[in-house]
Specification:
By secondary structure, this protein is mainly beta. It has 1 helix and 42 strands. β10 and β11 form a beta hairpin.
């Protein structure tokens, strides 16, 4: 499911389902046939061994690994509330050692989907087990008229707690249930032995159908159970949760339907969490990242007042006063999306230079009448009579420096789409040639299209980042004839930024984002 590492100990969370047993079906619908089948199935269960119920592990190298039980039977528990026949296991691996011991794993009879870990405890959440609806009873061969039992479609989530304080195996401590569903691992956070959980409840289990509500619940362990000690709701009625983040004794929740209410919460009293502020903006943040002091970065989409997405938005929020949160500045790349909305690992924050790397993808959009690609909410600063602005496609990562004064674009990085289109030679004038034709709405004239862009010469090619001699220059993009490939990860080592895509790895100077080297994978 997932893994966490704390103080040199990797905690690997797995789930496994029991292998199917060869149950038999009744030969007919008569009571005698049904009883015979039930008797045979009871014997099948009685004949099973513990290995049939617990997951196994393959240990060793080569073609003949050894199969061993993943768990000792004595290390398997079950929650007080029945949670199914699956096995949720937490295996502990000392990464400083050389031996992996599956027997160090502990488990419970439950499922697991979402993992969060503090320094002391690991929590695994999953939708709560629901018994299948009971079939109507029969009388002989004629079905009896029995009203089906009421079905509660108000979903809930089970949470299981493991102690990971010591370097040895984890210890199962408690389980609990909370109303609603979780958005992600950021929906859980622990502070001073209190677990905070943000969930959304919705009628008929459908958040998009209206009537949904988001709340934050606090839990503490008591007598082997996670018991709720406080809650606060009344957030985002009829809206979907887009982002959650807990920082110390503060919490932030973003919901969205047409506008973006960013709620601020005071969690200093676990028994009485409360909403203290709200910031309404157009668009939404899908990922929240805390930086210096009370500053918060939000990555998501800008939008119109009707909720139509306009492009990737990076916002800087000041949370110094929880009752009055404010947006310091926002940066918008018109008509684009970012992988950060679906996978927060695609975002990189390098605190040493206040650098944020945001992967974005913008399709070819041709000319926009007077609109600046970085303008907020598609505003055309030049007015109705302004000259059209050409917006080329862009697939890569944008580097933004973010500090209390605001957001500034440092530069952009593009990983080529394929080795065949890279490098693109410059022409004799030292320019990269743009070959695509612009597209315009019907009835609008096509303005003169820029046919060239200056070549960029990285230091590895003897250049300084500007136009250079044609015989030593090339075009790393982005130009329509050589689009980039989606950048999946960014990281910094020393003074070098590395950007990874499916086609290769690029290194750039972290201070300027000027290219140093491109390593294709094929």
């Amino acid at each position: 499911v997932s893994a966490r590492m704390v103080d040199g100990q990797a905690r690997v969370v797995t789930t496994a389902t029991r292998a199917p047993l060869p149950f038999v079906m009744p030969s007919s619908s008569t009571p005698a046939a049904e009883e015979a089948a039930a008797k045979a199935n009871r014997q099948i269960v009685a004949d099973t061994k513990i290995e049939d119920w617990l997951p196994s592990a393959h240990i060793g190298a080569g073609d003949h690994p050894t199969d061993v039980p993943l768990l000792d039977c004595a290390k398997v528990s079950h929650p007080k509330t029945f949670s199914g026949f699956g096995t949720l296991a937490v295996m502990s691996v000392d990464v400083t050692g050389s031996e992996i011991k599956p027997a160090d794993a502990v488990g419970i009879l439950a499922d697991g989907q979402t993992v969060y870990a503090s320094k002391a405890n690991l929590y695994v959440a999953t939708p709560a087990y629901v018994d299948p609806p009971k079939q109507p009873t029969t009388s002989g061969t004629t079905p009896a008229t029995v009203a089906p039992p009421p079905v509660d479609l108000r979903s809930s989530t089970s949470i299981h707690k493991f102690d990971i304080t010591n370097k040895g195996p984890a210890i199962y401590k408690a389980s609990g249930t909370v109303d609603g569903t979780l958005l992600s691992q950021f929906s859980m956070s622990e502070d001073d032995a209190t677990l905070r959980v943000a969930t959304t409840t919705a009628p008929n289990g459908c958040p998009r159908c209206g009537g949904s509500e988001t709340g934050v619940h606090t839990f503490q362990e008591t007598d082997g159970e996670l018991r709720q000690v406080g809650q606060v709701g009344d957030m985002g009625h009829g809206e979907q949760v887009k982002a959650v983040r807990f920082v110390g004794k503060q919490g932030y929740v973003v919901t969205f339907r047409q506008t973006d209410p960013l709620y601020t919460l005071d969690l200093s009293d676990p028994a009485a969490p409360r909403v203290v502020g709200e910031l309404k903006l157009l668009g939404y943040s899908a990922y929240l990242h805390p930086i210096d002091g009370s500053l918060l970065i939000g990555i998501g989409q800008d939008a119109t007042a009707q909720g139509r997405a306009l492009g990737t938005k990076v916002a800087l929020y000041d949370m110094t006063d929880l009752a009055n949160p404010r947006e310091v500045q926002s940066y918008v790349l018109w008509n684009s999306t970012s992988q950060v909305e679906q996978d927060f690992h695609a975002f990189m924050w390098w605190g040493a230079t206040k650098l944020a790397m945001i992967p974005v993808d913008r399709a070819y959009v041709g000319y926009i009448n007077g609109c600046d690609p970085s303008s907020t909410r598609g505003v055309c600063p030049g007015g109705a009579g302004a000259a059209p602005t050409y917006l080329p496609p862009f697939t890569g990562a944008i580097g933004l420096t973010i500090d209390p004064s605001g957001i500034k674009e440092l530069g952009r990085v593009v990983n080529p789409a394929s080795t065949r289109s890279y490098p693109t030679p410059c022409n004799t004038n030292g320019d990269c040639v743009i070959t695509e034709e612009p597209t315009m709405p019907p009835g609008q004239p096509v303005p003169p299209m820029p046919t060239t862009v200056p070549c960029y010469i990285p230091p590895s090619a003897g250049g300084s980042g500007g136009v250079a001699a044609p015989d030593s220059s090339y075009c790393p993009g982005p130009v329509p004839s050589a689009p980039g490939s989606p950048i999946e990860r960014s990281l910094v080592v020393g003074d070098t930024l590395y950007t990874f895509s499916s086609n290769g790895l690029k290194s750039s100077e972290v201070a300027t984002l000027h290219e140093k080297f491109w390593l294709p994978f094929s």
